[in-house]
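Suppose a colleague, Dr. K., hands you the sequence of a protein chain of 582 amino acids and asks what its three-dimensional shape might be. Before reaching for any lab equipment, you can write down a predicted structure in token form. Begin with the sequence itself:
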Amino acid sequence: MPTKFENYRNSKNPIPANTWAWNLYGTGIENIGRDGSPELFTVPQPNDNQLLMRVDAVGMCFSDVKLIKQGSAHPKLYNRDLRNNPTRLGHEATLTVVKVGKNLALKFHPGQRLVIQPDIYHNQMSTAYGYTIPGGLIQYHLVGDEILNADEGSYVIPVEGELGYAEAALTEPWACVEAAYTQRRRLNIKKDGLMWILGQIGDRTPYTFSNGLDAPSTIILTNVHESIKKRILEETKRGAKVIEVNGLKSENFLKFKVDYSGDKGFDDIVLLEPKSATLVTEAAKLIAFRGTFNIVGNSALDGDPQIDAGRIHYHYTTYIGNTGPDISASYGERRNRAELRSGGTAVFVGAGGPMGQMHVQRAIELKNGPAIIIATEVNSSRIETLNKLCAPLAKAHGKIFITFNPSAANESVVDFIGQQTKGRMADDVVVCVPVAALMEESGKLTAPDGMLVFFAGVGIGTYIPLNLSAVYLHNAQLTGTSGSTLEDQRLVIEKTLARQLSPNYSVAAVGGLEAARDGVDAMMSGKFAGKVVIFPQLNGLPLTGMEEMPKRYPEIAAKLGPNNTWTLDAEKALIEKFWTGV
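The predicted structure, expressed as tokens, is then:
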């Protein structure tokens, strides 16, 4: 006789007439649901181009906080009237197909398990699941063209093999982590783009441009040496339009941007032998979305320019460079890495939260990854959790794992990292909290040829001083990412099935449908160091942390892994206990 879990997995159970849901009707947690409770709606029937989906598990994500706080003002809601047209949280979701519209019968079948890649675009406009498209805090919902026929085609990924529901849901946040080490920067000159080359009066360096100069449609020259001007003019024979704008002062840069780019900015900016940090600060404001900023020079700037950290994260503004004389040498994958340095020292700033823990775990499990992993965190209980979960994992992988709490130490984090690295500083520094002061400090933790990653995003317009001299003099890397892609999530699924990644390590608490708002509240308050996972099909399961499990539900706790880590067997026991069969 099949077990309850086996019956649940085969999904041949009767579909209920109604479904419970936690809709979001405005700003604040009090507007999740009605009077603190979920609402009951009729389960809809799919049309010919829709799927009826059962939602199996949903991870709570801190990025939802912005949506809860801003409501209709959130950029992905486009001033929507939530009172009359609510949305729903829950973009980290795994679902099971229960009914298939006839036009989709060749692609999908009942019982098929799927995960959603929520970063959906229609006509290059964000229509993200869990934001524009109501998300997974519901038991059953329809999926149609809004997800299955968008810019990248279908935004669902089939799940095969022995992958748990929590594991599957958490492939999305794990994909965001994976994306941080997948090259997102544009590392070639944009075809048909707008390029600006800014030289220095009196600079007679014989610059060359070995390749790529035929890509832009327009090249604007300011104060460039005759040799490079001649080289560029030769390229005009291939169709590039060349314009000279000399005598331009930094106080006029913003007007120059409006006049020559329509205020969109320049796709590629090249600075030749700059001396002034102030000049670099002002020129960097002219970078277009996904633009590159290439500095070529032999001497350091007179200080650290003020750089928009928010744009590095959200707009993928790219800072590259070299010592010359070949301007093109700055570009390309070979010079610009994105992965953690093999055998190096990696520092994770603000590592105690759910996403920070994932970064640390990935570094530990990464084949040919860093040899030394240092996690900084100001919360003592989160430091304790990090040590409990990650120290044994590091030992098993032959890695050195160190934690540091700046608020409890008698030395600065800069001094501590300096001591640990014998003055070299870290090969890689990943900032996991959106705090400008920490981003600035993290730059001081990075070795001259190291990589600084802004995983957490501050608002666009947040300027911090950054050592750009190291970019062109020592090949330092400065990166940032936001969200993930279908390919990122597929890669995480592959790694999880191959047991190269363990998303279950991230689970800190579980709850049933009724506990969803408690889960959101716990996520917002930082009650748990790891991820909260809600199982919408389970009833009577209050929000329960892994540490509470042995006392509350010993039969489930008996299936947990070392240090009370979540497992597929624990998930099976959870479903056996709390699934009512409808």
